[in-house]
Every structure is written in structure tokens, then in C-alpha cells.
């Protein structure tokens, strides 16, 4: 009887840990802040959410369109930076809507979170490549950013699935996007200047996560 009761306790403990897993890159503290803003976004985007539901468009479809626009922005950097800026802005807005739509329709599951994280990184990587190819950022710092950012997000997702999440995750894509828009519409390019401290911080985060994961796997 004691063995059976102990087995039940272990089973309940494992089940509880599985339910607590998150297949995204948000830390517990950030998730609380994110949930607060998601409630506000639900009110802000309510007409759009109703419209997408009426059209039968899913949150995952919005995520894929967001990634497609991000790639389009990267391609258009060669031809028209203004158009590229608007495409990236549209991608960014849709990226903010997909999560709200998932919650509105009650389909905010692990697969959706993973899809959202993946499509975000597609946009980040594509736009970074576009900035590099078109000489808008320094090739050294830009290449490091291109490598370190996805690695950090991958480590963050992995640590969440292992229930050893970070307290906070450094995600500088919004900074890079805003500086790109500034360079397009204002005409002053500070991207490389900003990438130097960004890359250093990313490097420290990646090293720490690598050490933590190796320690956990020991």
C-alpha cells in the first residue's frame, strides 16, 4: 500500500510539473506582465479580433502572415526602405494580435506558443540578414546578433520546458526594429552603435544559459 501511495504521489508531481511547462521564451515574471498587457490588447484589438473570427482566420495563420511580412520587409530593403519599414511594422502589429486572437478564441495552447516563437525568430533573422546584406549594420556585430539572438531564444524555450526558467529574458528585437524605423523615416542610422552593447549582453546571457543547461544535464 505504501508503494502504491508513493507511486501516486510521484505521478501527481510529474503531472503537475508537465502542466506548468511553457513552450515559449517568457520568464515567469515577464509572463505576469505579458498577461496584464494581453488583457489590455484584447480590448484594444477587439474589433480586429471579431473580424478575424468572422473570417475564420486562426491565430497560427496570423503568425505565419507576420513572418511572411517580416521576410518581405527584408527583401524590400534592397529596393525601397520605406516600403520595407511599413512591411516590418505590419509584421510587428500582427505579431501582437496573434496571441490576443488565440486567447480570444480559447486556443492559446503549447503548439500556438511554439508557432508564435518560431515565426518571431523567422522575422528577426530575415530582417537582420536584410540589414546585413544592404549594409545598414556592421557585418561583425550584425553577424553576432544574427547568431546569438536565436540561440538565446532557443535556450529560453528549452529552460522553460525543463522547468528551470530564467528570471528575465533579454529580447532586443523591438530596439532594433525601432532604430530601423528611425533610420528609414528620420534618416539617422544608429543601428550599429546600438548593436555593440546589445551583442555583449546577448553573449553574457547565452553563456549563462549554456552553463545552467550543462549543470542541469550533469
Tell me what you see in this structure.
This protein is mostly helical and 218 residues long. The protein contains nine helices and no strands. Helix 2 crosses helix 5 (81-104). The two termini are 34 Å apart. The protein has a single domain (25-217), classed as CDP-alcohol phosphotransferase transmembrane (TM) domain (Four Helix Bundle (Hemerythrin (Met), subunit A)). Residues 13-19 have low confidence and may be disordered. The longest helix has 27 residues, at 191-217.
Topology:
Elements lengths: L1 H18 L8 H17 L1 H10 L3 H18 L4 H24 L5 H24 L5 H23 L11 H13 L5 H27 L1
Helix pairs in contact: 2-5, 3-5, 4-5, 4-6, 5-6, 5-8, 6-7, 7-9
Content-based structural category = mainly alpha
Question: Taking all residues together, what is the mean pLDDT?
Answer: 86
How much helicity do the residues have? Answer: over 70%
Shape type: flat
CATH class, anyone? Mainly Alpha
Spatial extent as radius of gyration:
20 Å
Q: Note the quaternary state here.
A: single chain
Task: Tell me the count of domains.
Answer: 1
What string, H for helix and E for strand, traces the elements in order? HHHHHHHHH
Q: With helices defined by DSSP (H or I, 4 residues minimum), what is the helix count? A: 9
N/C terminus separation: 34 Å
Number of strands: 0
Poorly predicted regions are 13-19
What CATH calls the topology is Four Helix Bundle (Hemerythrin (Met), subunit A)
What fraction strand?
under 5%
Q: Give the CATH architecture.
A: Up-down Bundle
Q: How is the biggest beta sheet arranged?
A: none
CATH superfamily: CDP-alcohol phosphotransferase transmembrane (TM) domain
